[in-house]
């Protein structure tokens, strides 16, 4: 398909973002507002140092809105859900952002969402549930609400990022930097109100923040936003399903978790969902009626040329 390289690069963003579940659970302190702030501020400054530029006109408030939805509010709610729920439950709730995004895109962008897009996203969410949920998982009401909120925030933010795109002549790294700093503006007063002064971080926690800021925040978000600004939401939204796949793989590598047959099936379903969205012809033919092939019209035979009548020769009279 067209833009396959761009689609792959875009998918790397959520794949990198999946490491945040592990980092939040094992490295970050239980201060989600400050964690979020120290994740987005250094990332935004780094991207602007690479490609500097200041917003103009409406892009001041657009950057704040995009930063709030895609990174600020999303990050806080994601960290709350990750710290109050088992990682599998938090990841499953977060996977619903793909469904939110395509539903909102159909209304806001008038994007044509076909049945196979919804089917693929539902299959992906089921796959995530099989991949990361455990029978012993316990639910916390605040954690569940935070998970649903983070999915909704990311879904709506994805649609607005596609709708607004980026100003002409401005690099995608620059707009990503604006968005991250917009998130920092949103998070800073909330951090002081709800968590007081900034916490002191241990060496281990600082390592977690460095990863969350520069790898997940700067690199991962820049890759994802660049694709969102240029590709249809129906293609980019399901890529967020890569988040829990990375989280599960990291648990296997770092903690030695073993995959059950159901988990392997879940991973296959997630990958299948992404492939189906990227290649709609695989599943689309089951939902669209094939048009009958038009029979070729018979070629018209050329009309016979008129035969010139032979004129009688004049008879000479001697």
From TrEMBL:
Residues 291-302 have a biased composition (Basic and acidic residues). InterPro entries: AA-Vitamin_Transporters, EamA_dom, EmrE-like. Its main location: membrane. It is found in: Membrane. Keywords: Membrane, Transmembrane, Transmembrane helix. Residues 31-132, 142-277 form the EamA domain. One of its GO terms (cellular component) is membrane. Belongs to the EamA transporter family. This is Permease of the drug/metabolite transporter (DMT) superfamily. It comes from Streptomyces formicae.
